[in-house]
Amino acid sequence: MTHRDYAWHRMDTRNNLMVINSILLFEGAVDMERLVTTIAHRLPNYPRFTQKVVGRRWVEDEQFDIHRHIKLERMQHEVSRAELQDHLTRLAHLPLEPDRPRWHMTVLDRVNGGHAIVFRVHHCITDGLGLVHVLNHLTDNNGLHGTTPSPVGHPHRAVAHNPVCSAVVRGLSWAKIGFHVARLSVLWPDAHTQFKAPMTGAKQLVWLPPLQMDRVRAMSKRMGVTLNDVWVAAVSGALRNYLGERGQRPDGRALRAAVTFNLREKANAFQLGNEFGLVAMDLPTNAEHPCDRLRLSSSRMTAIKRSHQPRATMAFLSLAGCLPTRLQHFALDLFTSKGSVVLTNIEGPASRRFLAGSRLTDLICWVPQAGKLGVGLAFISYAGQIQLALFVDTDLVPDPDRLMQLTYDAFEELELATQHAEAPQPAAEPELPGLVTTPS
């Protein structure tokens, strides 16, 4: 087990479980026998799904039984969206069994005229890109296949063989890594808002109907920015409006976010594990106009891409896995005190997928938070649509549905504001607190 994955393995706390929660919505009734047979045939291609953690090692679970990891819950009636959210929230509070492989599927048989699978995976197994690779391997591009996996892009047996820390430090000096880690550690804690209140561990998962990818892509092309820039700008607007509605001054100090930054080649996604950094970014929550927020988001994300901060934070996670548990948690609390929210952007399957003959209609994923962070927003694409999801500590966000609706509204506000706006001109922005602009 790499030190970095071991750090994620030990990162669970009473307030934050390091579990990636996702839900897959399907058309039609579930065929449990076919579903279990398909998963039992395909998932063992990734050894981590049949292995448990013993000490610092992945060890094959000699008692592994696929039926202990896939459970059917029969609903008494057709489940509404509100009921489904409550059901997912209940499951999200449950820790995964420590003496088994760290994943579980719960199948719900009467959801939206079809069925749903709640897929929960501990972060020590993989990150978002790795999980999408697993999903592609479990599914097919049509409904005709049974247990034989589609061979395109899938290894016969995925073996993780990354040397500890080598991918992180290759081409970088320890001096550079130390510089960026030290720089992050001395940042002032983030602005004191309700997002930085003490947490109780009571969580809520929410989502809204998906956005059409074409709308967001047209906006990004019109303004000469990336989809992720649009996402960051929209979230900034939603956070600003949410705080403003609660009487907090939105034009003061900007909120800081921990933004996930993928460092993995897609061709290596089958190796699983965690290959991403977390970058500290000042969100333009104190900019009033949507176009200004988009321009600032774009310039700051561009600066981050040119810096070593993503690799430095990934190196920090590797080093954290070498520390005693209490010291790791202390270091993590120090870093997460610098921000208020976690933002992640996951590129899901580009075309429709089928699992055991059933068509996957919607894919939703929630990002876990670590340390002192209690607000996580995720953006995942699937088959021409974008799904927005929010996972929060309800002591920090007592009305998560309102924040989710404001995020949806912020996309529409940004779309309207950019229809006649000019694309941002490249310019060197003055360095801001929390932003690393050292060129690579």
TrEMBL record:
Composition bias, Low complexity: 421-433
EC id: 2.3.1.20
Domain O-acyltransferase WSD1 C-terminal: 273-414
Entries under Gene3D superfamilies matching the protein: Chloramphenicol acetyltransferase-like domain, Nonribosomal peptide synthetase, condensation domain
GO CC annotations, alphabetized: plasma membrane
Pfam families: WS_DGAT_C, WS_DGAT_cat
Catalyzed reaction equations: an acyl-CoA + a 1,2-diacyl-sn-glycerol = a triacyl-sn-glycerol + CoA
BP GO terms, sorted: glycerol metabolic process; triglyceride biosynthetic process
Enzyme class: transferase
SUPFAM superfamilies for the chain: CoA-dependent acyltransferases
GO MF terms held by the record: diacylglycerol O-acyltransferase activity
Presence of the UniProt keyword Acyltransferase in the record: yes
Name of the featured protein: diacylglycerol O-acyltransferase
